[in-house]
């Protein structure tokens, strides 16, 4: 069974770039037809899909976040990463990585000076 684990700083200052990594075990990020997503949940709000990277490395982003979001991967480490630039306190959320019905445990990121 695929397992996912998010990692990265828990505190980011406004205007900086948030960077998170998802480490995958039990499966390969290059598996055909797989799609690896980043999803977040701000406090008191619903889950928000941010973007996805496919098995071939192609990416798609939420229109509302596209200008600030970048998803990349390192196939040698079986990891994929999220970068969100120019963060504000509104980007404070629990960030999850996901594939099909498998989720990481989530990591809290707070944007504050």
Detailed description of the structure:
The protein is mainly beta. The protein has strands at 3-7, 11-12, 18-25, 35-41, 48-54, 59-61, 69-74, 79-84, 93-99, 102-103, 107-111. The protein is built from no helices and 11 strands. 27% of the residues are buried.
Q: What is the H-and-E element order? A: EEEEEEEEEEE
Give the CA-based shape. globular
The low-confidence runs, each spanning 5 or more residues with pLDDT under 50, are: none
Q: Helix fraction?
A: under 10%
Described by strand count, sense and barrel closure, the largest sheet is: 7 strands, mixed
Kindly name the structural category. Answer: mainly beta
Describe this protein with a few key phrases.
113 residues; mainly beta; seven-stranded mixed sheet; 51% strand; globular
Write the layout of secondary structure elements.
Elements lengths: L2 E5 L3 E2 L5 E8 L9 E7 L6 E7 L4 E3 L7 E6 L4 E6 L8 E7 L2 E2 L3 E5 L2
Parallel strand pairs: 2-11
Antiparallel strand pairs: 1-3, 3-8, 4-5, 4-9, 5-6, 7-8, 9-10, 9-11
Short précis:
This protein has 113 residues and is mainly beta. Helix content is 0%, strand content 51%.
């Amino acid at each position: 069974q695929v397992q996912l684990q998010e990692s990265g700083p828990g505190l980011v200052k406004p205007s900086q770039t948030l960077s998170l990594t998802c480490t995958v075990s039990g499966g390969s990020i290059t598996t055909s037809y797989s799609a690896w997503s980043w999803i977040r949940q701000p406090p008191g709000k619903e889950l928000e899909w941010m973007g996805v990277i496919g098995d071939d490395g192609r990416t798609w982003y939420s229109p509302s976040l596209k200008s600030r979001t970048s998803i990349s991967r390192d196939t040698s480490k079986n990891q994929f990463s999220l970068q969100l630039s120019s963060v504000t306190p509104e980007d404070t959320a629990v960030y999850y990585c996901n594939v099909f019905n498998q989720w990481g445990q989530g990591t809290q990121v707070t944007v504050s000076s």
